[in-house]
Amino acid sequence: MAIMNKMRDSMHIVLYALVGAFVLLIVFEWGMDFTGLNRRKTDAGVVNGKPISLTEYDATYRRYLDGFRQRSNNVEISEQMDARMRDQAWDFLVSQILLDDKYEELGLFVTDEEIVSEVMSDDPPAIIAQQFRDPKTGKINTEALQAAIASPENKEAWIQVEDIIRQELLFKKLQNLVMSGVFVTDDEARRLFDEQNTKVSGRYILFELAHAKADSLYEITEADIRNYFNEHKEDYKQDPVREANFVMFSTAATTEDTLEIIHDLEALKPKFQTAKNDTEFVELQSDRFADFVKTYRPGKLDAKISRLFFDNPSLKVGDVVGPFQEFSEYKIVKILAIDSDEDRQAHASHILLKPEGARRADTLAVMAEAKQLMRELTSDEKFAEVAREKSDDPGSAQKGGDLGWFGKGRMVKEFEDAVFHAKPGQIVGPIQSQFGIHIIKVHGFEDRAIRGAELVRKIKAGPATLERVNRQADEFQYFATEEGFEKTAKQDSVEIQKTGEFTKNGFIPSIGFNRSVSNFAFHEEVGAVSPVISTQDAFVIMQLTGKNDDGYRKLDEDLKNTIREKVLREKKMADLREKAKDVMAKADGNLQKAIEIDSLLTIHKTNQVMLTNAFVPGLGRDKNFVAALSALDEGKVSNPIETKRGVAIAELTKKIKGFDSDFEVRKNALKDQILQEKKKEVMNNWLKDLKESAKIEDLRTM
Asked: Which of 157, 312, 489, 699 has its CA 20 to 30 A from that of 34?
């Protein structure tokens, strides 16, 4: 049946979608194949003594890859995206083992009767609902569903569907157990309601950081820095990191490589022109096959490329245009169709003259100058010369006033109207716009859109260049291993660069995301020299200079300097708090008296604010300040409140709370919102603990 074929073809995508729903509740990113795969002796890893075979890992990774390609047509997969999908595949397989163990430990299972009941319910699992729900009625088409189940040809597909539903029901049972003690009180709902609906107004005085003692009057010791680091250690938690020195041997294309690309494309032109199947020819010969049929309009192309298509009156269907360069590629294009285009394009140049003042007399003087110039513009060459000398539009002046091609809606109305009502070759003006006075030369119009098949060759190094550069890199790697990395770099006059700290599969400046770099850095010891590593633009040799696996940032000089600023701020804020208390004590808690005592103080008004919109004039967005203000009774003054700009003392002048009747209407919805957030947090933490307590060996080679 067609519908089951569709289900079978999209099976892995549906599975990812189902598990994607679970991701909202858990920290793992999952894919799927619940049916199990054959193992072999070579393993990608081991989880609690259970191996994950490389075959199983690779198959799961490729399901992610295929799913991504189907969902994101024409998107080129970068190193970073590829690494992320590999990690997703790994996390799924690890999670699958951990959950299967937990199901067995807790005695959780799903019967065939439960699966049938779920399939035939009014609200079946997503894999059923997506295929059998009638979009008009919103109900499941039970006749089509039962027919699909009964069909012998669907037997294998239904086995897979049942496995998906079994896993979904198992996970729901696990969730119910883990979150059985999660509940929400009316008081919690009321607090959320008040946060969303209480409006407050007030005023405040601010003891600004800028008015604290000078930095030089504060002593920040090494002990202060160390204590701050230890007290805030969780703020500096991080994944394991590495540091390395590296040298690069560029694999950028040479002039010879570029000429070879052009030569190859020239040789392909007659073959492309006579090819009977353009799709097969492009797929065989092009560096980029996806979306190879393009529509060309002059206003959308570089001027030089535009001329190849639109300044050729003899161009016809079947001709091959090029080679031409566009960005980092050379292209030839086979003309498939030349169509009329409703989006008419114009090509024009202009001379812009700006009045020196805003008076009418200034404008009239420039108008007179423009009329005089128009009498002198006897040729295209003269127009370009005058534009370069006199135009006040620097962007086009250097190009002789040339604005290129453009369609309607691209220029201001006065300019557009003048151009599109003119004839090719006509000089029109003077035209006044918001930018000044224009003299316009209309070169022509284009009413065609050309559709063509692109054959692309990326500008990259050829085999000879790659071999030569690879040989240089190999020689460096050999001597760096034998005689020392820095010594070899100095002898060869090669610049040593530093990676800084990077995580596994993390981004490295000048290198990017590279699995081979991660594999070397996270499997070798400090001092090791890498093999030659191929990156997008170079061959790289690295020497590992540092590693940190303790889970926290290293307290190096950079971090010490950062912490020194934080400690300094803390000391200043402590002084300001004491100063605020002292001033308010002398002022008997009165803001007006406080500003009379301290001339640096001013009373600021907050306007009406809410926790959900906590922007305070003079302080910016400050939820902590608004929360402290909201907690006051009307007419009461706060204790010192820390803000980004210093220490504030606030007085509440008005509070408007939400109505009890509104709360009763919204109470259940608020409780449900809080419950879902609690469940998400509980499940996240439970699964995180499950993973952290497991013995997981990642044996993958990247």
From this structure: 699
